[in-house]
Design goal:
Rossmann fold; Glutamine Phosphoribosylpyrophosphate, subunit 1, domain 1; about 625 residues; alpha+beta; six-stranded antiparallel β-sheet
Length: about 625
């Protein structure tokens, strides 16, 4: 398991210096796995697990002619880093960054990384001339980055249990955050579920100087989307094909063998096609999950894709009767709640298959729906009107949207016109969230009216068009890096589609171009039509695991009742107990998809709260 720990403080503050060395000593005592990377005035950094998977640390070194400067290192990049245009060199590259590039990174306070590199990383840069330290989280946010403090020392960490092991830092539940997370599970702000911890946002840079911290975004998707839009479908198709292949090939170059989650849908099939086309030729084993329910068995499509590309395929049936949800009580502690059910069911299977195949990475097509704008085709009309005004092309966009949503063109055209003319909603929840059946209205409305919950990316862009807003918010929540339970199931997953060059490209393609010809994800379909079976390229319906989730809830009804009906969320008024009891029960339940809400969000959040509540009580007793 790859992780890092960074200590930053004002070197002129004697008390902070003493505290920093105390924290560093505690870290070394807590884990012999910590390897020192940097030990400079005002900056100490460790990492662990660099030999596992594709994660590593690269040293930012001063050029030889800077001998007058003290020391030999200016910083480090933790994680995985690719240089644009030279992606396949990463496999052979040494851990160090060449001095000329190091100088540019330091001179630009790390912004050079955003423009000329990409990957899954957190960078820390010490500028001796300015007497300041810069910290940057990459624009995808794929490597976690959290911040807390201890006696004047800023403690930056990737994994919560590493911070807890120090035994110096108290943590308490941030109930305001939890009350906002319950109605809006895609919440992504600097606050976290712990009062003492904040999250460095994707593309955000922190500058530490003389005990002060300045925060700002170096990467903003709103600006990227509004500059150099790609309106020509043929140009978009060519660009998506080239960029997507480059990104998948780059990630594939880090592994000799990978496991690929192949659902049989468009996105995972595209990733498989690019993996098979990778110049480094990694060994690929496809893994497909199926449920015996009639509308959830997609083996025919997975077999079609694997057979078409001559890839090995392992099929694994999901049997709800064999899955105990009680294991969720063993979740890895984190600063925020997460959706642990996927890891609970799938991680043991993927860990065992990875061991059997000597695979060091697990890939998937996750994120494709958000990246290729699979949903909300009706918003494209408002986007077109915002960019071009009321031209005849608006009718074509409305017709394309009508074909996808299977409704009449005229209501979609009228709705798009109204969305274009009316002021944008102040609250992000107004566009992306609907009232949840189990959340009391007061809780939902409180979150809906809270401007502090607006993502920093869009807080300064009040006139953003609705389709672009939806696109950006769907990409706003970083993919999880750490497996939810750890131990023997601790595998390194890579969401290859969530790569910075591909995200930037897809944002530049407006929503109305993505639905060209009246098909969702039209650009991605066209880009890889010659590499996929026609039956997969034509698919418009997606498989679901809804019945499996209902069966999983029914099999674990007693445990779910015990956790939720008199749990902390009900006690604090965050869930409607009466409705919750009705939806959990097997008899006469009015639940449509609410059981997904119960399992994926509320049960997971309750377990997270209980774990941290226990830690709070132990700390108070001590």
């Amino acid at each position: 398991m790859y992780r890092y720990l960074i200590l930053i403080w004002n070197r002129a503050d004697a008390a902070a210096t003493t505290a920093a060395h105390l924290v560093a000593t505690r870290a070394r005592t807590a884990s012999v796995e910590w390897a020192p990377i940097l030990d400079e005035p005002g900056l100490i950094a460790f990492h662990s697990g660099a030999g596992q998977g594709s994660s590593r640390t690269r040293i930012i070194s001063r050029p030889p002619n800077a001998a007058a400067m003290h020391g030999e290192r200016d910083g480090a990049v933790f994680g995985t880093l690719f240089r644009r245009g030279r992606e396949l060199e990463a496999r052979e590259a040494a851990n160090g960054i060449e001095p000329s590039e190091s100088a540019r990174i330091v001179a630009t306070r790390a912004s050079h990384l955003v423009d000329h590199y990409w990957g899954r990383y957190v960078a820390v840069v010490a500028d001796e001339s300015r007497r300041e330290i810069s910290l940057l989280r990459d624009p995808t946010g794929a490597l976690p980055c959290f911040l807390t403090s201890y006696r004047g020392v800023s403690v930056v960490f990737s994994e919560m249990e590493s911070a807890l092991a120090l035994g110096l830092l108290p943590f308490s539940i941030n109930w305001k955050y939890v009350a906002s997370f319950v109605p809006y599970g895609a919440l992504q702000i600097r606050e976290t579920g712990l009062r003492e911890v904040s999250e460095v946002q994707a593309g955000e840079r922190l500058i530490f100087k003389e005990g002060r911290v300045e925060r700002g975004l170096l990467w903003n998707p709103v600006q990227i989307a509004q500059e150099s839009r790609i309106e020509n479908p043929a140009e978009a198709v060519a660009a998506v094909r080239t960029t997507l292949k480059t990104c998948v090939h780059a990630w594939a170059s880090l592994h000799d063998a990978v496991i690929h989650n192949l659902s049989g849908g468009l996105d995972s099939s595209i990733v498989l096609a690019c993996l098979k086309d990778a110049p480094t030729h990694p060994s690929i084993t496809c893994l497909h999950y199926f449920s015996p329910s009639s509308n959830e068995d997609e083996r025919q499509y997975a077999r079609l894709a694997a057979g078409h590309m001559n890839a090995d395929l392992v099929e694994h049936g999901l049997d709800a009767a064999t899955i105990s949800l009680e294991r969720i009580l063993q979740i890895r502690l984190a600063p925020k709640p997460w959706f642990y059910i996927y890891d609970l069911v799938h991680s043991p299977i993927e860990a065992q298959l990875s061991a059997d195949k000597n695979a060091t990475g697990v890939f998937s097509g996750s994120g494709g729906d958000a990246l290729f704008l699979q949903a909300r085709a009706e918003l494209a009309v408002a986007d077109f009107l915002r960019n071009h005004g009321f031209r005849t092309g608006a009718f074509r966009v409305a017709l394309n949207a009508a074909r996808i949503t299977r409704t009449s063109m005229w209501p979609i055209l009228g709705h798009g016109l109204l969305r274009h003319l009316k002021p944008p909603a102040r609250s992000v929840l107004g566009d992306v969230a609907q009232m949840r059946s189990l959340v009391p209205p007061a809780i939902f409305e409180s979150a809906r009216s809270d401007d502090s919950l607006i993502h920093p990316w869009i807080r300064g862009a009040p006139n953003i068009s609705p389709g672009l807003l939806w696109h950006i918010l769907c990409l706003a929540v970083p993919s999880p890096f750490y497996e939810s339970f750890g131990g023997t199931t601790d595998i390194e997953r890579t969401v290859v589609l969530m790569s910075q060059p591909l995200i930037e490209l897809c944002l530049r393609i407006p929503s109305y171009v993505w639905i060209t010809g009246g098909r969702d994800r039209a650009i991605a379909r066209r880009a890889f039509a010659d590499m996929l079976p026609a039956a997969i390229t034509r698919r418009t319906q997606k498989g679901a695991i809804d019945r499996h989730n209902r069966m999983l809830l029914d099999q674990n009804e007693g445990f779910v009742r015990e956790m939720l009906l008199d749990g902390l969320m009900v006690q604090n008024g965050l869930l409607d107990r009466e409705r919750l009891e009705l939806y959990i029960g097997r008899e006469h339940s009015p639940a449509g998809f609410e059981y997904n809400e119960v399992l994926r969000q509320h049960l997971c959040t309750e377990i997270w709260l209980r774990r941290w509540s226990q830690i709070e009580r132990r700390a108070a007793a001590a």
